[in-house]
Each structure stands twice: as structure tokens, then as C-alpha cells.
# Entry
Amino acid sequence: MDFQIVVLAGGFSKTLLPLVSKELPKALLPVADRPVLSFILELLEQSGIKNAIVVVEGESAALLISAWISRAFEDRLNVEVIAVPEDVGTAGAIREIGHRLTAKDILVLSGDLVTEIPLGAVAAAHRRHDAMVTSVLCSVTVSGPLDSGASSAKDKGKKAARVNIIGLDSTKTFLLHIAAGADVEKDIRVQKSILHSFGQMEIRSDLMDAHMYAFKRSALLDVLSQNDKFDSLRRDVLPYLVQTQLKSTLSSNGAQSEENGHDKDTLQIQKKMFSQLGNASIPNGSYASNLLSDPILKQTHKCVVYIANKTKYCARLNSIQAFSDINRDLVGDANHLLGYTLSSQNNIVDPSVILGSKTTVGPQCMVREGSEMGDKCSVKKSIIGRHCRIGSNVKISNSIVMNHVSIGDGCSIQGSIICSNVQIQERASLKDCQVGAGYVVTAGGDYKGESLVKKEK
Amino acid sequence: MDVRRVPRTVSNPKVRQVGFFAPGTQPDRSQPGPPAASPPLSDASPTENSLSPVMIPPPRNLSTELARQFPHVLPVASLRGGSRGADSSIPVGSYNPSEFQSPAEATDFSEDPSPHLGRRNSSGKLATSLPAGRFDMEFAKQNNVATLPAETREQNTTSSKPFKDKTTKAERRAIQEAQRAAKAAARGEGSKGPNAAAPANNNTNASLGKLKKESSSTAVSEKRSGDRQPDKDKKKDVPHPRMQFDDTNRVEKAKKRSVVKQTESKNRVELFRHLPQYEHGAWLPDVESKFFQLHNTVHPAVYKVGLSFLTGDVSGGNARCIAMLKAFQESIKDYSTPPEKSLVRDLTTKINGYVSFLIECRPLSVSMGNAIRFLKSQITNLPLHLSEPESKEKLISDIDHFISEKILLADKVIVNHAVTKINDGDVLLTYASSSAVEMVFLHAHELGKQFRVVIVDSRPKLEGQKLLLRLTRMGISCTYTHINAVSYIMHEVTRVFLGASSVLSNGTVYSRVGTASIAMVAHQFNVPVLICCEAYKFHEGVQLDSICSNELGNPDAISKVPGRNESSCLDGWIDTENLQLLNLTYDLTPSDYVSMIITDFGMIPPTSVAVIVREYRHENLWT
# Structure
């Protein structure tokens, strides 16, 4: 279908610092015991896509990721992993791989998405409107009150940053304004010309940018080559395209390739033709009727939005909070993404798990194979990875315990994330902590809201 | 021959002229008398069959029969001094059988009461508006007249045995031997020449009874095989008969084949069961989710067009047709012949795949069907010596020609014709929104004519509103009303202009549902009804009701009134078992209600559509 898929998998994210490490880039961070990248790759596979490009920041991360992909997706997807220098940003990454892009349209996905938005629908919307850029918006996940009782003020700040101020036209097909929530202070500025030509703008703040964009390749590369300073698709390129949708320099610019000029020509002709005779027949949503019903409007390129259905799960793993949210959702409400069947207790416990007497595993839990638990343990709303050894009388709630963790007797773990190979000795108590890989929590230790990382030697 | 023709002549007591005739010359259509013994070759008195100049096409087997009898016909004809050779008889015999499905249908269209074309329009104009057609007509006329006697005579001389009899093996053998004997005899008399041989042959035939058939059929076999080739092609071109969706077996099969999965809606109206009806909501997500899977079968441009059909972004005969052709152009541009395949065949299958995808998105309109047929015939008729880029280039320019000539230019011609029918002070009524009619109004307005437009609209599409918007913006004074008020508003109307999705060869107009009632009311009020329709939308088929072929719209569209939020009794109708909603898209306007059809060939009475269809078809397939 003349579409190329680019997955931006990032590198070693700083925001997820205690969780990621040199051995574990962000893309491979296990979410419900699966690398986060696998969700997006499976989505690609489900959509019938055969080829994809995965862009990774940094050589070492690229090696790790390509090793994993070749293992896990050997016969399923033809994935090409490309390493780009670190800290080039999303736009920089696209600029780096620009010469590899050949298709007419490009679908750029963030590698940390856990979603079920149908990609075909996005691509179809892009094609249908012949858009310059199609941005996917999803409604902000209305997550229930957090049981963890984590410092809510901090969380709210983070959440607000994810929300964007988005202006749509009356048919909810065109994107007229976009501003990241964090950038907005008190007032937002709306371009008069856009408002004038569309007549009406609907401003919404309940939509979230899903970091999934379909671009027209020529336009994207032109914008990137003209504006060297752009380094983020979301913060720079998208707002730029939205702002210039009425007075685009792209079409008139000589930098554009000949083939495109020709495209424009045919487009013009077609427009003319439709306005001549087909106009009766082209109702709303399409450019011809817009042109006709409003002679002022001269949209040179179109910024289309695809608003995902509310029932579709969509989340980005871009913070520690998001990490635990996604984990919780995956074993809870969005468990269909995982593909496991729930047991009668509404949880997923591998048959090889050894549970001691009087140990209970509550609903919305997941315990993977080879883990052992002693007596009188209680696990609530938590995920426990493979081959963990958990002593007796341990209480784990709202937590994520990765693989090969050993937890001594009488520990209490709440709202924490324990990375692989961590050793927690007896009677330690952790609340809202992130424990980096390989860390040893000493016996009887009591931590609250801390991030524990092994010292580099 | 008499046996064959009698039912028709008997069944049409009311006779009407079809096609072109001078206003004065009413052919004598007294009684179906006995076959004239020696029909004169002049045009003045037609033959007993009252074949009006535009012949009511003979039943489908005429061509084959003619062909069969050809060896006998030839000598007779040549004796009579007609210099007609094989090629001159072909135009008569080569009516595509599919054009006229059965004698019954042919009768039907000659059964209509006399045309009212002359009612408000000068019929003299009609005659002149078709300069090109007339020569052909006369030519064909001569052919008819000349062929018939030959045929009658032949029939009289030979046994009247039905030709379709099966011969046993022994009989065939006997025939063959007799044939050989006859040949030998003929050779013996060789000096007498072929003319003499024929009677001899006939004599043997008469004596041997059945022999005649077989001998002629073998003699003709080469000719028939020549005939068969185009026949086959035609069969390929003609879209296969509409699928009957009440036939569960075939529906199942089709489902397996189909690219897009569609769920059929419940609660279908029994009478319209044979039409495809799917749940409208289910289409789009499925097509969309298949986006990346379809790329092998469907070109992106075609996909885009299909999507816009599905969502209703593009609708209307012309717009859909142009969008489709443009998409095909794109796909041809990107096409490259796979190794070890020929472009003609492979491209045809490709196009077939695209077409079936488009059909799944929305049933094809007649205009699209004609355009597809045109494109396919262009592909099959590609000269063999052309290289791949050359043939692609040719096809692309062919499509461009089709669009500019048959659609854009045709519209211009229609507008120029139609404008002459608009006078100052007229009140013109139109229904829904037709692109051609809109152009007529705009052009008339540009010419400074003073007129008023009444736009009649109907739910659920309310297409007239957009037309209203555009016309008022141009400064044309308009009245907008709904179809319920048509009988009231018709008092003040002087002319009705309507668009059409298609015009069938019996003059019936296939158009947006509601058109028929408008035309009927107009007819009642003696207001002339003018149909603006490009000739490429004409269809050779004949349809008597709007049931057998129609399109079902979304039933939800009529159950929900936009802007009204309070609950109605139709909420949740899908669960009510004894309630079915019917949202028809098209209806048929009988030709009685149509005064005139304005087409790119001029202004014609609805009865002349058959002629245009034939001439036009000719033009398409053999140029």
C-alpha cells in the first residue's frame, strides 16, 4: 500500500532511570513480562504489515534490540534495526534515516506504545483525506484512583503534561491547533487566519497525542531539511505543519521534487474537475466541498486527526508512573492485549508456580513460571516475573517484581518496582520504591518513595 | 418465419414508432398481413413486420439463423442484384444478442403508447439533432428490407422444421453422405458456376429433410467461428448478471471470494432480498483494518476511491466514474507486467480485481459499468506490436479521452442544448442534485436569462440543500421544498429538469428515488420533463420495475432524523422482528412521463435511446 513503518524505539531513557540499564534499553523493558516493543511489533503483525524499520538510539542498544527481535520475530516480521546517534530527537532520527524512506507515506510510531489502535484505520484516514500529516489522538485513559496512594501531586503534574490543547474543525477531521499541555501557561494563541477560514474551532483538552503519525514522505523530509533545528516530531514538526496549513511553502517551494509537482498538478486538475461537475456529489469532509462552500478557504495541505475509539487501549510508557499504570492495566482491564486467559480468580498464575500453604494470589495478578512462594504470602494486584523466590509471610501489593528476584521472609512491598536480580533480605519494607537491577536491599531496611540503584563500580 | 414473428405482432395492438422518422411519414401499420411476396426495396412501405426504420431488434437467434442460411442466402441475394456481401449483412445480424434479451422485452418497448415528444417541443428539431445517426439508419433500413425477402424465400423453400432438433449419429452420417453426393454433383456441373449449384443443393436438401441444416452448419462453421470470437469477448465485457442475494448458496461462495468481509443486515424487506444489503457500520472498520493486507490485490489509488465510495465522500454518477477512472489510470501507471505474462491478460485480471473491490464498497453505477467496459475493450484491443510503456501510455490517454469526451464535453453539449429550452420567466423545477442540471442552470444564469428554480428535496440525503446553497450563491432565485409539496408547487412550474443515473434502452429513466413521482406529477400537470443525461450512461438493458435492480441504502438513515434527539418509536427497530425498513436509492421513471432526454447527441425522445445505445456502443467497441 505504499506505506513504510518506522518505529522509534528510543535508547536508554533517562526518565525511566532506575528501571533501564545498560543491559536493558527502554524498548526491552518488560511490561507484564514482555518487552514493551513486542506490543507494537505484534500490532504491526496483526495489521498485516510485513516490513518495518526500528530506529534505536545508540549502537549498543541497537545490538541488544536487534538480537531480541531476530529471536522473537524471526519469521513474522521483516524488521530492520537502524542505530542513530543518541540525543538526536525523533525528528533527528527521521532525518538520519531519510535516505531509507522510499514509500509515499510513512507511519511513525513510538516504540513505547502499548495500544490496540487499528493501524489500517489510521493509514486509511490518511489516504482518504490525502493528508500531509495524520495525527492519532486518543482519549485520556480515565484511570481509576491509584491505590498506591503515591504522592498524587507529582502524578498530576506528570499527567497534565501528557494532555494537549487540541483544536479541531467542526467535523473532527482536521487538526487546527495543537499545543502541548506543558507549554500552555494561561492563554493559548490561535491563528486568526485558520479560525477565519474554518469558521469554527473546537478546543479540547481531553485528548492525548498517541505519538503515532502518518506523514507524507516528501513533505516530512522537506520540512526536516528546511528546518535544521527541529528535533522533535511532536514539539516542532507537527505544530509547524498545523500552523502553516493555510500558507504552505511546501507546494510552491522549488525544493520539492518533480514527481511531487506533478502530483500537485493532477490534484489541481482533479479539484477543478470536481468543482466543475462532481461538486454536487461530494459532501462534507472532502476538500472540494470545503472549497465550494467556503471560497476563502484555501488549504494547501491538510492536517488530519484520527481520534481513536474510547474503547481502544492506548498508553505510552514514558514515565515510571506510566510503567506501573500499564502493568496494572494489562493484567486488569486491558488483559486482552496479552492474550492470556484469566483463571477463575481473575488472575494469571503459571501452572509451574509453587505456592506455599495459605498463600493467596488475588485478582489482577500475574505470576510467571518457575516462581516459588513460601507460606502465608499474599499477592495483590501485582506482577511477579519468572524464577522468583519469595519467602514466607511476604506481602506484595500494587507492585511489579521482575525476574530472578529473591525476597526474604516477612517482607512487605507496596507500590514498588523491583527490577531483575534484586535481592531483598528479610523483613525489609518497601513502599513506592524503584529498585534497580542487581540491588541488594539489606535485612530490615525500610524505604519509602526512594529509588535504589546499585552503585557503579 | 411467420411462426416466429407472429407472437410479437399479435401482442402489440398499439404500435409505435421507434427511432427516427420524419414527422409526416407515418408508416402504414395496418395489419400483420401475409409476407409480401416481393417486397419492394423502397423505404416507403415497410415490410409486413412493420419494421420501422429503427428495427425492433429481431430475437436473439436471428443472427445465427441468418448465418446458417447464409450459403443459400448468398446466391439469392446476388441474383437479386443486391451487391450485399457478407459484410453488409453483418450489421443487421450483429445486433448483440445481449442487447435484447428476449422477444418479450422487445415487445414491451414497442407497446408503449405513442410518444409525446412533440407535445411541447418541435419534433422537427429532433430529427435534425441527430445528423450522424440518420445515414446509418437508412443504411440499416436498406439492409433490413433487402435481407428480409431473402430470408422469407429461403424459409419457404426449405422445410419448416425447427432448427434446434437434435440429430442422431446415424442421421448425421446420412447427412454427411448426402452432402458429399451433392458436392460431387455440383462439381460435375461445375461449369454452371456457383449460382447453379445452389438450387441443386436446395433440392437435395428438400428431399433429404434434415440434411439441410447440417450441411449449412458445416459450411458456415468457419464463419461462425469467426463470429464467436467477438461474441466471447463481449461476454467477458458484459458484467456478469447481478448476483441474487437471496440465493444463499451463491452468497456463501461470493463471501469466500470477497476481499472485504461484510455482515448482512437483519430484517431485510422480503421483496428486496435479492439485493445486497449490509450493515453499514460494519463496512468501514473492516476495510480500514485490512489496509495493509489488501496491498497485493488492490492498488492504493483504487483503495482510496473505494473508501471514498464507502464513506459517501464521492457520490453521483459522474464523480464516481471519474474518480474510478483516475484511480485506474494511476494503477496502470504503476503497473508492470510480471514475467511470462501478457499485459493484456494480466492487466484485465488486475482491473477485474479492482472492480470487484469497488463493487464490494458500493454497487457500480451504470456509468461506471460502461466505463469499465470501455477500458477493458481498450485493453483487449491493444495492438500487439506496442511495447509495454507504449501500451500503458495509450491506455492512459484513452482514459483521459473518455473522461474529457464522454463526460466533460458531453456535459458542455448538454448544457448548450438545454439552455435553449430555458426562456425568460420560466420556473424550473429540479429534484435532488444533479451535476448536469446544475450546470444548465448556472449557464443559463450566465447568459442572463431570467428564471426561477424550484428545488425539490427529500430525506434522508437532502442533496438538494447543497445545490440550493450553490445556486443562491450565484444569485439565482430559488424555492426550496420537500417532495411532499410537489403537487402544490407544480402549478407554477413551467419545466422540470431532472438528472439521471442511467437511461435504459426502452426509454426508462433510472434515477434517484423520488424522480418518478416528480415526473408523474409533472406529467399530470402537463409540464414537460427534460432529463439531462450523458450518453455514456445509457444502458442497453431493459427494466420494467425498480425492484429487480436497485440499491439499498442504510436503513438507519431513514429511521433517524438529524437534529432531533428525542427518542422515536423506531429506536431499536433492528430487534423488532416484524418491522423492516426500506431505503431505496433509485427508482424507474417510465418513458411516458419523460418528454425529452437531453444528451450529448442532441435532444431526443425517450424512445430513441435504443438507437443511441446501439450507435454509441458501436463507436465504443470498434474504434
